[in-house]
Amino acid sequence: MFDGFGLEYMDQRHMPVLALWRQRGLFRRVKATMPSVTNANNASICCGALPEQHGITGNSYFDERTGREEYMETADLLLAPTLFERAKKYGVKSALLSSKKKTTTLLPRGADVVLSAETPTEDWVQRLGPAPDIYSREINYWLMEAAIDLLKTRPDLGCLYIHTTDYPMHTWPPEARESKEHLARMDQLFGEAAVAAADAVFLLTADHGMNHKTLCWDLEQACANRGTPIRIAISVERDKYPKHHRGHGGVSWVYCNRSQDLDAVSKTLSGLKGVEAVLTRNEASSRYHLMPSRIGDLVVLGDRETVFGDLESESDALPPEYRSHGSLHEMDVPLIIHNAQASPAPEEFQYNWQLARWIYS
Question: Of 123, 250, 298, 343, which shows the fewest CB atoms inside 10 Å?
């Protein structure tokens, strides 16, 4: 799961190994799960299911039982079987490797090996050296080297799930020199992995793309300033990695103080610059296959250049280098299957969450 690897990065064509996989294997341009943020898509890909089934609707959510905003990164919130649990039924051992620690607390069920490059154990540090900082492109290289090590030394493992970080995509656009270097090095490591396990099938997709954003709204302040106060607004992008995106994302869950406030609040939100759509809970859950109990009374979608989050004032103009995701405009991602002797027909793949659902099914 190549985090943030939207089509705009793949189309830079500095990845000859992936180009060969695309040519010889199965390649599709597919859609991500909405909202286009990591946790919702990681859960969808790993479980081969939609958020209405597995329950992970974003990086953060509002727990209406406790009245607190919580990170959506614990295994107890995941309501569908993981790829690892499916594999275990067939006697297949598996491993979960991620640059980000949050993935190893969300998706570990059934995995025999769990490794976070952000917080590696001492035995991994002795094998590969200290892992680079989580806010670096180099941490993805370290993670891939760990995966290659397992491919070489653990023949008892039949399934590896590898999740990188999108910090490089948040930091550099596709055409930047640093971005091209990152993609080229990752491509080289994909090639080394294929050599290490010549009989392995490689499946690759992404959780979202990335766009430059120019405007951020604090929806709580915006609504209060317009005479329609709300209970809380939560950016679905908010997680424990603020240097990536400052917690700003292209979708927000809005909770009203009273049910009779819905129409007035919706009208206020719809009038804000950059708001592309305001949907009710029922409309959003039906349209995007979301679990209704884990989204807001209203769901606010930003346009290509607009995000939502917590600010000191009601809105903020973002700097030219700011890049984020979460909206409908970051949903186009690649899907690649290499070295499979048998797989579903190409037209069976329309979405990223369908990548591995046919395995151990």
Answer: 123
Please name the helix (run of DSSP H) or strand (run of DSSP E) that holds residue 87, with its range, or none. Answer: helix 83-89
In this structure, the answer to whether residues 199 and 125 fall within a common structural domain is yes
**What percent of the chain stands above pLDDT 90?**
93
Can you say whether the dihedral through the CA atoms of 343, 344, 349, 352 is positive or negative? negative
Does a structural domain hold residue 361?
no
Q: pLDDT of 51-69, one tens digit each? A: 999 999 999 999 988 889 9
Same domain, 16 and 114: yes
Distance CA 156, CA 290 (A): 37
For residue 235, the number of C-alpha atoms closer than 13 Å in the C-beta half-sphere is: 27
**β-pair type (157-163, 93-98):** parallel
State the Cα–Cα distance between residues 100 and 78, nearest whole angstrom.
17
Q: Are 202 and 194 in contact (CB under 8 A)?
A: yes
> Is 257 a member of any domain?
yes
Beta strand 211-212 with 215-217 is unpaired
Q: Which two tokens stand for residue 345?
A: 């027909």
